[in-house]
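Memo to structure team: turn this sequence into structure tokens by end of day. - J.P.
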Amino acid sequence: MGESGRDIEQVLGSIHTTEVTRRGFMMTTLAVGFALAVRPVSAETIVTDAEGLTAGEVKIPTSDGPLPAYRSMPSKGRSFPVVVVVQEIFGVHEHIKDVCRRLAKLGYLAVAPELYARQGDVSKLSGINEIREKVVSKVADSQVMADLDATVAWAKSSGNGNIEQLGITGFCWGGRIVWLYAAHNPRVKAAVAWYGRLVGKPSELQPKHPIDVAASLKVPVLGLYGGDDQGIPLDTVEQMRTALKAAGRPSEIVVYPNTPHGFHADYRASYRKEQAEDGWQRLQAWFKQHGVG
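Reply from structure team:
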């Protein structure tokens, strides 16, 4: 509030401040339907219609060219609070698009950029190991931070998004990214991370993990985790809780007992209706508590 346009852009972070290797995009449009690796989808799959919404693909300007993204918002009005939605490991497939429509029904401009677009289209790969090996292992955190900065800048320049009320949420692969972005961009008012990995060995492309930025988080994060998540041991969740407490950060972690990874993913067998609905209510309350909407 009260900042000049120039100051806002400086705080946002220019899409040029995080170095990204210049290369062509392997994806110029979004995938259609559900990723191959998750088919057949569950009978419990939630389908949110686009009635009363403006929804569809948009292009996010980046230093490398236009990045495909899915955007949904109410069809009437403007200057909506903004929620950036960070994809699962399966990319911006139908489930992530549906999450955007759910948020738009609540009055948000929700936008999900395809953050693997330079490295490949995971929607056509048949297994999660293949997805990791051929695409995800090549995606640099610095590239992701720059693309998210570009997405926020796009929401502002579109005239439809109010980035004074900016939130971010993400699932699985995107849950980890949410923690990192909460340390990267102080313009974010609130963040919700769904079962994102918290610890790991540093590498050239992933120099830090959420545990490493716990003390430097600039915004409050709500973490939602499953007690039976085989990929995210509970001791790592407790490590993060301890680090957040030691740093005096106003972030929280909720652990659902007897709950697996991917419990929000209604199109998969991992879906847990009660926990997913509770988490969704917590997301809405967290956003409103911290000025997003």
